[in-house]
């Protein structure tokens, strides 16, 4: 018996063995051993005991393992490791299959059928799910709002590999926390720090904001039924189609313009507060923020009968003006009528006069930090967030609303809608990778656009677990950390452990579009 310390092999016969790589006369190709050697990073449990049987002496000091029928496997596997060399004048040659658990594997992810989602195959979520699994039946009258890719207890992704004993990604990570990467594992106590999603929005989501960590802990302690954890919840959305949302407070000039053109809004806020905002100057940002806080708080705390009457008057007026062919843009008429048709009598309809309307084209992103008021309105996007369910809502929702907390916590810094578009940085190492790296430690996203001219592409290893989503294109993926080849196509989702890479053999005439969620510490 000999103790061999080695790494996962490639499933192919080795080149000439490097003598002394493991000590003594036992040789294993260096590329199986050295971190990063031959383009393969170190991986897997490093101290696995294996049995090696000494063979009778042969003429050749280093026999080819393929020359012996008894040793030639019909299908070498990615986990196979060849060991050959001479021992005490004799020689041995053996195929050792090490029992490494697969560290790259496909996932089947949870769908959330919230009422605001797009219906049937109008939904990008439904299209991805149907493409990813042909056995799934899409119901034409059912909303498909969100696809969850992660370990959230209400949607823990299922592992699509029956050779892995754990059934869900959360269970697998709990049993194999090193897969997160050393820094991520330590920083986030052995948990995947993000939830990756696809959203298909048909009707508006609530006007909301997410608390910072300090406020989250306080809210969780006081109202755990509404704020179920003590974590913050920054988010980032990247458009897949044209995507609309409300985000952050408008420049003061725009809000003042609405106060002067929408008398129903001015009635809710009151003359004193409206005039205070009109008088506030750009040379006094604290004064502007204070006046803005007063106006928005007065709006959101309006007595219900009063604001419903004013909203009905506003809707009636704009509807009449639109019927007469008049321009209603001064009252943001089109958006008001749309939101009122979705949430009649809701105070959230008035927030369009305070918050920026942000329109994203495919590939553009919005980052939503703590205390940033926002509401998604329409479109399809990928989204990533920290692992939390803490949302403070105040309108456009039938759910619990907490107006007082929302108005106290918000960032009342006005800024133009263009400032809300979060830029992607093209990688200097790989021209096909665009990185969205927000100012939080919990997550980042890579958009990978592989042109049709590229037929072989490497998804590089990194010191973080990641989740890969295929939006467009087809390929066969191979990895030393996978149990077998993986067929990738639209809707495929893969979990990639830290320090593992995947080779993509592309077969699509249109190239590929991928998104990779990760944690960069």
TrEMBL record:
Pathway: Nucleotide-sugar biosynthesis; GDP-alpha-D-mannose biosynthesis; alpha-D-mannose 1-phosphate from D-fructose 6-phosphate: step 1/2. Residues 1-10 have a biased composition (Basic and acidic residues). Residues 1-73 are annotated as: Disordered. It comes from the Eukaryota. Its cofactor is Zn(2+). Its EC number is 5.3.1.8. Residues 104-252 form the Phosphomannose isomerase type I catalytic domain. Residues 268-355 form the Phosphomannose isomerase type I helical insertion domain. InterPro entries: Man6P_Isoase-1 (IPR001250), Mannose-6-P_Isomerase (IPR016305), Pmannose_isomerase-type1_CS (IPR018050), PMI_typeI_C (IPR046456), PMI_typeI_cat (IPR046457), PMI_typeI_hel (IPR046458), RmlC-like_jellyroll (IPR014710), RmlC_Cupin_sf (IPR011051). Keywords: Acetylation, Cytoplasm, Isomerase, Metal-binding, Phosphoprotein, Zinc. Its main location: cytoplasm. GO terms for cellular component: cytosol. Residues 63-73 have a biased composition (Low complexity). Isomerase that catalyzes the interconversion of fructose-6-P and mannose-6-P and has a critical role in the supply of D-mannose derivatives required for many eukaryotic glycosylation reactions. This is Mannose-6-phosphate isomerase. It comes from Cyanoderma ruficeps. The lineage of its organism: Eukaryota, Metazoa, Chordata, Craniata, Vertebrata.
């Amino acid at each position: 018996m000999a103790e061999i310390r080695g790494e996962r092999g490639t499933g192919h016969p080795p080149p000439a063995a490097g003598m002394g790589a493991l000590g003594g006369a036992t040789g294993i190709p260096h590329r199986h051993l050295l971190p990063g050697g031959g383009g393969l990073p170190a991986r897997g449990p490093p101290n696995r005991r294996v049995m090696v049987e000494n063979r009778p002496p042969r003429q050749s000091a280093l026999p080819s393992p393929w020359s012996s029928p008894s040793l030639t496997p019909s299908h070498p596997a990615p986990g196979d490791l060849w060991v050959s060399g001479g021992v005490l004048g004799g020689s041995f040659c053996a195929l050792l299959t090490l029992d490494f658990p697969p560290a790259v594997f496909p996932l089947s992810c949870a769908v959330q059928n919230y009422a605001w989602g797009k219906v049937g195959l109008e939904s990008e979520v439904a299209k991805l799910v149907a493409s990813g699994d042909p056995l799934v039946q899409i119901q034409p009258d059912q909303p498909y709002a969100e696809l969850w890719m992660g370990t959230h207890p209400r949607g823990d992704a299922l592992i699509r590999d029956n050779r892995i004993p754990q059934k869900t990604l959360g269970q697998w990570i709990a049993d194999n926390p090193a897969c997160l990467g050393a820094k991520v594992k330590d920083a986030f106590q052995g948990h995947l720090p993000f939830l990756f999603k696809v959203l298909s929005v048909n009707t508006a989501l609530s006007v909301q904001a997410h608390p910072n960590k300090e406020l989250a802990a306080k809210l969780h302690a006081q109202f755990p039924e509404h704020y179920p954890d003590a974590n913050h919840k920054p988010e980032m959305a990247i458009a897949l189609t044209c995507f609309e949302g409300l985000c952050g407070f408008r420049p003061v000039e725009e809000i003042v313009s609405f106060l002067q053109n929408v008398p129903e809004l001015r009635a809710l806020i009151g003359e004193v507060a409206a005039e205070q905002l009109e008088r506030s100057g750009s040379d006094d940002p604290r004064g502007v923020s204070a006046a803005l806080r007063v106006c928005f708080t007065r709006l959101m705390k309006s007595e219900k009968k009063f604001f419903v009457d004013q909203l009905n008057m506003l809707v009636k007026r704009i509807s009449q003006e639109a019927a007469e062919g008049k321009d209603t843009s001064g009252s943001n008429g089109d958006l008001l009528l749309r939101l009122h048709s979705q949430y009649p009598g809701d105070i959230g309809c008035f927030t369009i006069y305070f918050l920026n309307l942000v329109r994203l084209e495919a590939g553009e992103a919005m980052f939503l930090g703590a205390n940033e008021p926002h509401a998604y309105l329409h479109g399809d996007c990928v989204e990533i967030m920290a692992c939390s369910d803490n949302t403070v809502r105040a309108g456009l929702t039938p759910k619990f609303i907490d107006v007082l907390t929302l108005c106290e916590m918000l960032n009342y810094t006005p800024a133009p809608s263009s400032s809300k578009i979060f830029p992607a940085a093209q990688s200097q190492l790989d021209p096909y990778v665009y990185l969205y790296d927000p100012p939080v430690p919990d997550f980042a996203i890579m958009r990978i656009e592989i042109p049709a001219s590229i037929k072989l592409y490497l998804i590089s290893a990194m010191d973080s677990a990641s989740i890969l989503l295929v939006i467009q294109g087809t390929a066969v993926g191979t990895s030393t950390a996978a149990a077998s080849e993986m067929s990738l196509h639209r809707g495929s989702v893969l979990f990639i452990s830290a320090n593992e890479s995947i080779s993509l053999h592309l077969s699509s005439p249109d190239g590929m579009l991928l998104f990779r969620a990760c944690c960069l510490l």
